[in-house]
Amino acid sequence: MYVIVVGGGDVGHYLCKQLLDEGHEVLVIEKDAGKCEHIEEELGDMCLHGDASEIAILNKGGISRAEMVIAVTGEDDNNLAACQIAKEKFNVPRVIARINVPRNEKIFAKLGIECVVDAVYLVSEHIKAETMLFPLIRLFTIRDKGLEIVLVRVGKNSPAVGKPIGELSLPLGSVVSSVICHEVESQIPTVDTILREGDELVCLVPSENISLFQAIFRGS
């Protein structure tokens, strides 16, 4: 697959290495000449110096044959512009944008860029997972399906403690895919799996039902 990555900073650089390791053809478009030079020193001749919001630069980068454009600069307006042009002007099948300011997600969606990665959100969710102070962590959002993959912890005095999964009144569309126990090996659950305080569940939940789902496992 031919992938164009807009932005050669730390995120773009790391992403390129991962894509190359998977055998994909990659081009980085970066406005900073120094960053371009650094990428080419390490990864080879795969960086185009220029502004990805300029059609001439995108044409030079062969966007007409690109199957995916991923914009990961530190500026939301640059990411939005690159993805909009790629999608609307060149009909790139898949565009993905990094969002650095969470409130901009609605703007991206309104302008047709629905596949976004909220950098602040991801960091905050990772911190929540490490602190163990929060009952539910969002691992991944499938926006076009309205679904969330979450990690939820069975709290002390939760109504779920001591009950088999099959007896829980889970919101419609919710699926428990794995139970992580701290005293025994993790397991693929069945309707008869008994939950205990401290168990962690990896679940698929409709986004609109997250609050209802969390209430089942929240303890005191």
Overall description:
The structure is a single chain. The chain is α/β, with parallel strands linked by helices. The chain is elongated. The model has no long low-confidence stretch (mean pLDDT 87). The chain has seven helices and ten strands. Helices cover 31% and strands 25% of the residues. It folds into two domains: 2-118, Rossmann fold; 134-217, Alpha-Beta Plaits (2-Layer Sandwich). It has a six-stranded parallel sheet with strand order 3-2-1-4-5-6, with helices on both faces. Strands 7-8-10-9 form a four-stranded antiparallel sheet.
User: Mind telling me the CATH class of the largest domain?
Assistant: Alpha Beta
- State the separation between the terminal residues, measured CA to CA: 50 Å
> How many discrete domains?
2
Strand order of the largest sheet: 3-2-1-4-5-6
Can you tell me the residue ranges where pLDDT is under 50 for at least 5 consecutive residues? none
Beta-strand content bin: 15-25%
Chain-averaged pLDDT: 87
CATH homology superfamily name of the largest domain: NAD(P)-binding Rossmann-like Domain
Summarize the main sheet.
Answer: 6 strands, parallel
From the helix content, strand content and strand pairing, which structural class follows? alpha/beta
**Structure annotation, total helices:** 7
How many beta-strand segments?
10
Helix content: 25-40%
CATH architecture of the largest domain: 3-Layer(aba) Sandwich
Q: Report Rg.
A: 21 Å
Encode the helix/strand succession as letters.
EHEHEHEHEHEHEEEEH
What is the CATH T-level topology of the largest domain?
Rossmann fold
